[in-house]
Write a structure and sequence with these properties.
Number of domains: 3
Number of helices: 10
CATH class of the largest domain: Alpha Beta
CATH architecture of the largest domain: 3-Layer(aba) Sandwich
CATH superfamily of the largest domain: Vaccinia Virus protein VP39
Bound molecules: zinc ion
Strand order of the largest sheet: 7-8-6-5-9-10-13-12
Structural class: alpha/beta
CATH topology of the largest domain: Rossmann fold
Number of strands: 18
Distance between the termini: 25 Å
Strand content: 15-25%
Length: about 400
């Protein structure tokens, strides 16, 4: 399908002169749900991507997204803090926010807190009280340490009628899952930012990484929205947050947006969008990259060699599904113990610990996220393996 004008309306700026540019069927609805057997994995639900681009604010969204298909419960599991690199980033982010807000003994609310790693860290470091919202949370309801306490509510914040006047509201890797982003941000502001001054920090995947830099394995059904700096800032301004600062985070793979005290610095990033050229050529570039990987896997099959995929999150799941990987990919490695022993949605590849590679060493390791290269190399060296790393 070539890019063409669509009559849909941009969910961020309401522009209705938008471009439909990418369509894909048979995409797993969940990349991060734990599946107990290859059989269960083969029956995993699939959905459709029908991506639309708004040339005004640069936003991309999936107009085929059906929120009812994506119900989060405790079987959904996607913490990234099992990586040392990611943990370092999270700790640095917590300290930056504490410094920016001069946060000591306040109230921190985390919307979409997952297992609460970030919330507990920022509360412990600032002596704050924390409240975490997440329908997928299944740990203890309260966690307390020296000088801090965190309580968890296994619901979305909209289901709790009381106002929680927070000093800092965080919402990381959540907004892109929401089918009505304007409503969501407005409600969040009304319900949680009653206290002035209140700092707000959101983090989302960076669509420039997907559409400009061809990070194609990040196009997943779970994401309704693909934010660029301009659409993210526009959303915040419309919700009444005033000046906000957009930053690239995590080697450009994420965007952060901060509004609140001490953050009102103009940012050159704020107007960046994927270009129309990048969007109209995306289908061709996507197909080219996919074809190269499918050919590479076919070559492994033909010559009786094998590969392991490193990373069983969104990227790994989409890589295996899109390339049509078969038995030449013997296993998928993930350092998260909760994912080990489970199976990849639809393709049914088994997820194992790094140490399992020694039993049947693959010819190569296909690394899903280059940012972990050093960490992976160290693990491979420790295991005494001599496999080549290639980057998807
Ligand atoms: Zn727009």
């Amino acid at each position: 399908m070539n890019a063409r004008t669509s009559h849909a309306q941009c969910p961020i700026c309401d522009n209705d002169e938008v471009l439909r540019f990418f369509h894909l069927r048979g995409v797993p609805v969940f990349c991060n749900r734990l599946l107990e057997s290859a059989e269960e994995a083969s029956q995993a639900a699939v959905g459709e991507l029908d991506l639309v681009f708004c040339p005004d604010c640069g936003h991309v969204w999936n107009q085929a997204f059906e929120p009812a298909l994506v119900a989060y419960d405790p079987a959904y599991h996607n913490p990234l803090e099992v990586s040392e690199r990611f943990t370092r980033y999270t700790a640095d982010l917590a300290h930056r926010l504490i410094d920016l807000l001069e946060l000591h003994g306040g109230v921190v609310v985390d919307v979409g807190c997952g297992e609460g790693f970030f919330l507990e860290l920022i509360c412990a470091e600032s002596g704050s009280r924390g409240v975490g919202f997440d329908p997928a949370h299944n740990g203890p309801a309260t966690v307390a340490g020296t000088g801090y306490e965190v309580s968890y509510i296994s619901k979305s914040f909209g289901e709790v009628p009381d106002l929680i006047p927070a000093d800092l509201v965080c919402c990381r890797q959540t907004l892109e899952h929401i089918a009505e982003p304007q409503q969501f941000v407005q409600n969040l502001r009304a319900q949680l930012c009653a206290k002035a001054p209140c700092g707000v920090f959101f983090e989302v995947p960076n669509s420039l990484f997907s559409f400009r830099d061809l990070g194609i394995w990040d196009l997943i059904y779970e994401h309704y929205s693909y934010f660029c700096p301009k659409s993210l800032r526009h959303l915040f301004q419309r919700a009444g947050f005033g000046a906000s600062r957009v930053s690239e985070e995590y080697a450009g793979q994420f965007l952060g947006v901060y509004a609140g005290p001490n953050g009102e610095t103009a940012s050159g990033l704020g107007s960046k969008t994927p270009t129309v050229q990048e969007i109209v050529t995306f289908r061709r570039r996507f197909t080219g990259k996919l074809a190269r990987w499918s050919a590479r896997l076919a070559e492994l099959r033909r010559t009786g060699r094998t590969a392991a995929v490193w990373g069983a999150g969104s990227k790994g799941t989409m890589f295996l599904n899109l390339t049509g990987a078969g038995e030449e990919v013997t296993v998928v490695v993930d350092v998260n113990p909760k994912k080990q022993g489970k199976f990849v949605a639809v393709t049914g590849h088994r997820i194992v610990a790094p140490s399992e590679l020694v039993h049947n060493p693959p010819s190569e390791i296909i690394v899903m996220n280059r940012i972990y290269a050093e960490e992976i190399q160290a693990l491979i060296d420790d295991l005494g393996l001599n496999c080549r790393m290639v980057f998807a």
